[in-house]
Specification:
The protein is an all-alpha fold. It is built from five helices and no strands.
Length: about 140
């Protein structure tokens, strides 16, 4: 294979060697992708009345997952320790699914719509609480 056309990080993947932070990053990204898919399933189960409402809910529920994915990829490109950030992102994503499942399936009531709309905000707050711990753990891993 002619590797002169590809950046080094892709050559190492083609050679069977994962780039820095490979396994935790792949697992975290898989969990985040699965969370987005489950969130979209929940939007379908909510049966929005219009295509606009469906699109809004789908995008709104995917925003925290996309932000966490972008952060993890940016940290990986900078060569930062990823494990603490992956450990912070996975419970936040799963916690959001728990809140959605609780509001939609386990305890449905009139206030469930508020919980569905506020879930991304709650995920953002949870990640903001976990971020200093991940930052601290990342600094400890480097030193």
């Amino acid at each position: 294979m002619n590797t002169s056309r590809f950046p080094n990080r892709w050559c190492s993947v083609a050679d069977g060697v994962a780039p820095a932070g490979g396994r935790p990053l792949r697992l975290a990204l898989a969990v985040l992708l699965a969370s987005v898919c489950v969130s979209l399933f929940f939007v379908v189960r909510l049966q929005p009345t219009s295509a606009g409402a469906f699109a809004f809910l789908a995008v709104w529920l995917a925003v925290p997952h996309g932000a966490m994915t972008a952060l993890l990829i940016a940290l990986q490109r900078r060569g930062k320790p990823l494990l603490p950030w992956c450990v912070a992102a996975v419970p936040v994503a799963l916690g959001g699914l728990y809140v959605l499942a609780d509001a939609i399936f386990w305890h449905p009531d009139a206030q469930g719509a508020i919980a569905v709309v506020l879930t991304p905000v709650l995920q953002g707050v949870a990640f903001l609480i976990a971020a200093p711990l991940a930052w601290w753990a990342g600094r400890r891993m480097r030193g």
